[in-house]
Specification:
- Helices cover about 40% and strands about 10% of the residues.
- Strand 1 and strand 2 form a beta hairpin.
- With about 300 residues, the protein is α/β, with parallel strands linked by helices.
């Protein structure tokens, strides 16, 4: 049962949301035991980093000296795990999923590969890094590590500049996360702490010919979807190679237009799909071609 204080917090959140229209992210510490299906354990490391649900967190504060940034990212990782499980459960339905699996992954023969990548993110499985990075971290398979970027730290000025670049997905005016090919580090940009992470995106509408509007990236406009997009690329190095060869997609319709092989090499498809499940979106372009023996027109 929720305590009186927890009910008061929920009431405040409801009033705040009703009055402002801004969806608050919940605090992981406010859950009751019945609502807690994931492990809440924070382990200390030798370099002042901590481990939470398999993810390392560095330069964000610690449980002994908590900061708003530390509490924010721990809360995000806690609830990301819950939402990831919902995405995996939906993907298990394959083309019968109501949330766009058929549009973004085309065939139920891809279920195992799709859920495998999502399970890697869910479990925070070790990453494979390049030789240069392995020599520094003393292993070829380190854990993914979130590192908070301080705008006032001159030593990371270049990363701060990258964080503040214009972002086509329209999450904010800057990237919430940055990843680096062959590395295990995920830069947590300042803009990450300025938005609600799990606010359901506005579900996209279709044009008269049954397609997404061009330049529409609606399903990626949530930090959770961007997180899935970023980590999918880290766990599948072929995706990064494909992006170097073919570049970034410009909208959701381009992602839908990919075939059953190409979609598995495109991290945006994973981000869009995660956003669709988060937003409970069910209206997608019909896929032309043969899917699992059934002709879809």
């Amino acid at each position: 049962m929720l305590s009186s204080l927890q009910w008061l917090c929920l009431l405040f959140a409801w009033v705040f949301t009703t009055c402002t229209g801004y969806v608050l992210d919940p605090d992981w510490k406010a859950l009751s035991s019945r609502q807690e299906p994931v492990t809440v354990e924070i382990q200390h490391m030798n370099d002042d980093a901590v481990v939470f649900n398999g993810f390392e967190i560095a330069k964000c504060g610690t449980p002994d000296a908590p900061t708003p940034q530390f509490n924010n990212i721990v809360s995000f990782l806690y609830f990301a795990k819950l939402h990831l499980q919902a995405v995996i459960d939906d993907a298990q339905q394959g083309v019968l999923s109501p949330h766009g699996y058929a549009a973004f992954f085309k065939s139920s023969t891809n279920i195992r590969r799709v859920t495998g990548i999502l399970q890697n993110i869910l479990r925070a499985n070790p990453l494979i890094v390049d030789e240069d990075r392995a020599a520094i971290v003393k292993t070829h398979t380190p854990q993914p590590r979130f590192v908070c970027i301080n705008e006032d730290d001159a030593s990371v000025a270049n990363i701060t500049k990258m964080c503040n670049r214009s972002l086509r997905y329209g999450i904010n005016t800057a990237d919430p996360l940055l990843i680096f090919p062959g590395k295990e580090r995920i830069a947590v940009c300042p803009s990450f702490f300025r938005v609600a992470h799990f606010r359901p995106p506005a579900c996209p509408t279709l044009t008269w010919d049954g397609k997404f509007e061009r330049q529409d990236m609606a399903l990626m406009r949530t930090t959770f979807a961007y997180f899935v997009y970023s980590l999918a690329m880290m766990y599948n190095r072929d995706m990064w190679t494909a992006k170097l060869d073919y570049g970034n997609l410009s909208d959701m319709q381009e992602a839908v237009d990919l075939d059953s092989r190409q979609c598995m090499h495109n991290p945006e498809n994973f981000g869009f799909y995660a956003g669709a499940v988060l937003g409970n979106c069910t209206n997608f372009p019909k896929t032309k071609g043969r899917l699992d023996g059934e002709l879809k027109m």
